[in-house]
Every structure is written in structure tokens, then in C-alpha cells.
């Protein structure tokens, strides 16, 4: 059940209706929990069991940690949580990947091994809700929060359907306290939530699916070696597509949650207007980047143990961040590339600190251009099917190989104009941290015209029936 489907629209209207009819706050929470399980079961009902396992294990593990007197016992229950959650994630997401990698390594030493077909199906959203529940038990272990005694509240924290399958990854300390205050439907929340849903649908259906995706798919299909212009057109198209697709999902999730009275954190803040890669990761997939910082990078020592250790920790964090995105070596390479970018940036900031600290337009423009250029290049391994395709595309982008005009001149002009319009818009609003601030800053008349235009475009744009990109992660 996708956000951009008619089925979901009917589902949402029914849930809002039931929620509004209930007078008791506990009953309203029960409606949201049951609705969330039904929403998830629409993909594959048996996988709801995995969510139940994560919920029960982490709920009781947190309570046991809070009661434990000895540190060894607290560590034991944290280990139970880590083993349970990461074990399921490793099996379902990385089982086939690790097995295939073993086969390839064995072949390098002339050992032929034909493994059995595991036939593992990846449960949608498992990477997101696993990290969400782990943040809860780790925070309880670190004594940053007290465990909730309500299994209802914890279950709703884990399964809240707007952000269940693709984030934002919500922290318990931000969401569970909201459950202590009864929520009801209000005209303001429904109105602003509807505005955000409209913006998200426009990002997804009009920009991502209709404008950028066809050109990206055409080039990355690799039916023939692309020319210089076609390679750049395809990569710019994917750069626009992945932002509009994922940001669109996040904005819709935030809007739907707002309809019920809940506040979810923003997940994007003008990432293509970043000044450096540390700035990029403060703006791109914010809920994941802060999770990796707080629970992985800092746990390894962060920047507290000298420069070499800091560089190592940065690189490992980004390497694992790449692997989180997908079970393929191309994702690992993408993460390693961003780790390398961050290390180089830190070295440059030490050598020429005045340049990065300068507010001069020329300096900011140069840093912004270089950052965007390297981000665009890094999307090639993220999207390419394998290393061979990646090298062919990169060679074409840098003029090292002749190729064919896979993308027409008209498509090249359209995607280039669309991409730079997207970048220009992000530069206009880069200093406003919240999507709601960006929207509410518009005059009411202008906002009304834009919303009307967005719905007209959504209604008249042919449906492409494309799943959200981050569903596969």
C-alpha cells in the first residue's frame, strides 16, 4: 500500500474517520496500532511477526536493563536486543549477499561451491524499524531515557504507519512523550498536514516519477555505452529522482503524522545546497545520519582519540552506512567514497581554515559547486547495477570513451533545466531548517495558487506506478 495509491487514500480516510469517532485516547492509540499492522500486512502479512518480535524483545529488554543493578546484567540485556534485531536484519537483508560473496571468494582460489537457493524475501522497512527500536534500547542502556511501562505506547512507537517502512527514523525520546498527551483531529493539523502531503505527492509523482525517472532508467539500463551528454543527463536525472522520491516520501509521512497531531522530524534540508560534505550529511537523510553519528561514530570514539582515529571512525561509519542502504558492493563503495570525501574535507579545513569559514560569495559558490559535483558523481555507484556499469558511466562522464546518444537532446535539455531549477530552489531556502517554515513563509495567496497548481499537475500526470526507491532498503 503506497502513499501515492488510491488504496492508501481510502485507507487513510477510514483511519482518520475511526480516530475521530473514538472519544478515549487509549482507544485512539489502539486504532493507530491496528491500522499500522494492517498497513504493513498489505505487503506481506507473515512479516508482521518480525515486528512483533522486535517490539516484545526490546520492550522487555529495556525494562530488564532499568531494573538491573549490575552492569554485566544490563550489558546482557542490551546484547539480547542487539543480537535479536541485527540477527534478523543480517539474515533477511544480507543472507544472500554474504553467501554470494563467499562463493565469489572461493572461486578466486579455484574452489567451486554451488550454494542452495535460500529464496530470502526482504521484509519492507526492516532497516528502518530495526534502527528505530535499537535506538530505544541503546538510549535506555546509556540511561538517557527511562523505559516506557506501556506496551501500547511502545508498540505504537515501533509501528506508527506514516513512517514505518521508510522513515524518518524516529527516536523514542521524541515520540513516546507525545503519546502522553491525548491527540485529536483539528482543522489546523488536517489543513497543514494536507498541504505537506500535496507537496510530497508533487515531489514523487511529478518530479521524481514523470520528470527524472524515465531519463535515469533509460541511461542506467545500459543497453549501450552512453555518450558524454547522455551519461551526464542520466546521472543528473537520478540525482534529482532520488531526492524528490525520498524527500517526497518523508514529507508525506510528516504530513500524515501531523493530521493525527504528531510531530515527526524533518529528514531533508536542501542537501544539494550543502557547503561541504559534513554539511551535506546534516541535510541528507538526517534521521539516518544522526543515528549513525550517535550510535556508531560516537560509540567508536568519535573525534576524541586523535586525528587518525577520527578518520578511521568516519570511514567505518560511512562504509557501514553504505551497506545499510543495500546488500551490494556498489553500496559499500558509495559509503567508502563519502567517507573519503569527509576525511579530505577535514584535512582541508585544518590546512586552510579561513577558506571554509569565509562568508564571501565566491568562496561559498566554489565550495557549493565542488560539493554538488562530487555528490552527483557519487550517485553513479549507488544506482549502477554493478562495478562494470559504474566504470563505463564514469568513463563517459569524464570523456574517456565514445558512446551513443542514449538520451535525446530534448530530454537532455528538460532534465538539465529541471535539475538546476531544483538546486536553485534549495539554495533559496537552505537557511530555513524545517519544511513547514519554508511553506508557511509563503504568502497565503501564493501558497493557494501553488497548491492548486500542484494538484493540477498531480491529477494530469500519467501514473508511472513506481515504488518509492527507499522501500528496497
Describe the structure.
There is one protein chain. The longest helix has 38 residues, at 71-108. 39% of the residues are buried. This protein is globular. With 473 residues, the protein is mainly alpha-helical. The model has no long low-confidence stretch (mean pLDDT 89). It has helices spanning 6-21, 25-41, 48-67, 71-108, 126-141, 151-159, 172-175, 187-220, 228-259, 277-281, 286-297, 307-325, 329-351, 353-357, 361-383, 387-397, 409-428, 435-440, 444-460. Helix 8 crosses helix 19 (444-460). Helix content is 69%, strand content 0%. The chain is built from 19 helices and no strands.
- The topology string of helices and strands comes to HHHHHHHHHHHHHHHHHHH
Shape: globular
The beta-strand count equals: 0
Largest sheet: none
Radius of gyration: 23 Å
Helix content: 55-70%
Share in β-strands: under 5%
Average the pLDDT over all residues and give the rounded result: 89
Task: Report the end-to-end length measured between terminal Cα atoms.
Answer: 17 Å
Q: How does the helix and strand content classify structurally?
A: mainly alpha
Amino acid at each position: 500500500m503506497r502513499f501515492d495509491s488510491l488504496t492508501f487514500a481510502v485507507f487513510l480516510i477510514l483511519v482518520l474517520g475511526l480516530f475521530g469517532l473514538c472519544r478515549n485516547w487509549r482507544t485512539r492509540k489502539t486504532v493507530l496500532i491496528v491500522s499500522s499492522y494492517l498497513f504493513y500486512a498489505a505487503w506481506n502479512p507473515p512479516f508482521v511477526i518480525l515486528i512483533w518480535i522486535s517490539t516484545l524483545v526490546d520492550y522487555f529488554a529495556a525494562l530488564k536493563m532499568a531494573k538491573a543493578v549490575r552492569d554485566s546484567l544490563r550489558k546482557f540485556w542490551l546484547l539480547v536486543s542487539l543480537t535479536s534485531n541485527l540477527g534478523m536484519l543480517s539474515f533477511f537483508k544480507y543472507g544472500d549477499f554474504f553467501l554470494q560473496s563467499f562463493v565469489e571468494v572461493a572461486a578466486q582460489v579455484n574452489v567451486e561451491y554451488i550454494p542452495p537457493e535460500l529464496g530470502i524475501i526482504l521484509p519492507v522497512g526492516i532497516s528502518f524499524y530495526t534502527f528505530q527500536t535499537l535506538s530505544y534500547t541503546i538510549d535506555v542502556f546509556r540511561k538517557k531515557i527511562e523505559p516506557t511501562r506501556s506496551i501500547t505506547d511502545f508498540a505504537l512507537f515501533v509501528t506508527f504507519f506514516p513512517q514505518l517502512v521508510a522513515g524518518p527514523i524516529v527516536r523514542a525520546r521524541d515520540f513516546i512523550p507525545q503519546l502522553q498527551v491525548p491527540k485529536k483531529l483539528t482543522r489546523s493539523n488536517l489543513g497543514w498536514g494536507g498541504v505537506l502531503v500535496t507537496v510530497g505527492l508533487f515531489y514523487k509523482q511529478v518530479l521524481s516519477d514523470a520528470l527524472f525517472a524515465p531519463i535515469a532508467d533509460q541511461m542506467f539500463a545500459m543497453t549501450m555505452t552512453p555518450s558524454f551528454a547522455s551519461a551526464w543527463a542520466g546521472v543528473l536525472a537520478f540525482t534529482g529522482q532520488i531526492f524528490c522520491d525520498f524527500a517526497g516520501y518523508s514529507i508525506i509521512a510528516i504530513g500524515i503524522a501531523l493530521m493525527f497531531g504528531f510531530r515527526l522530524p524533518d529528514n531533508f534540508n536542501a542537501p544539494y545546497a550543502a557547503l561541504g560534505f559534513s554539511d551535506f550529511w546534516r541535510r541528507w537523510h538526517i534521521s539516518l545520519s544522526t543515528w549513525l553519528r550517535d550510535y556508531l561514530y560516537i560509540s567508536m570514539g568519535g573525534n576524541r582519540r586523535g586525528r587518525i582515529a577520527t578518520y578511521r571512525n568516519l570511514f567505518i561509519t560511512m562504509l557501514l552506512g553504505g551497506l545499510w542502504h543495500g546488500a551490494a558492493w556498489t553500496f559499500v563503495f558509495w559509503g567508502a567514497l563519502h567517507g573519503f570525501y569527509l576525511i579530505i574535507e577535514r584535512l582541508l579545513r585544518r590546512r586552510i581554515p579561513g577558506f571554509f569559514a569565509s562568508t564571501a560569495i565566491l568562496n561559498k559558490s566554489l565550495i557549493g559547486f565542488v560539493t554538488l559535483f562530487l555528490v552527483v558523481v557519487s550517485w553513479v555507484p549507488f544506482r549502477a547495477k554493478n562495478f562494470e556499469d559504474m566504470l563505463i558511466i564514469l568513463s563517459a562522464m569524464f570523456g574517456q570513451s565514445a558512446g551513443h546518444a542514449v538520451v535525446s537532446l530534448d530530454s537532455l535539455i528538460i532534465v538539465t533545466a529541471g535539475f538546476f531549477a531544483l538546486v536553485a530552489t534549495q539554495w533559496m531556502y537552505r537557511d530555513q531548517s524545517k519544511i513547514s517554515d519554508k511553506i508557511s513563509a509563503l504568502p497565503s495567496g501564493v501558497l493557494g495558487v501553488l497548491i492548486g497548481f500542484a494538484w493540477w499537475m498531480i491529477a494530469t500526470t500519467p501514473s508511472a506506478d513506481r515504488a518509492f526507491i527507499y522501500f528496497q532498503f
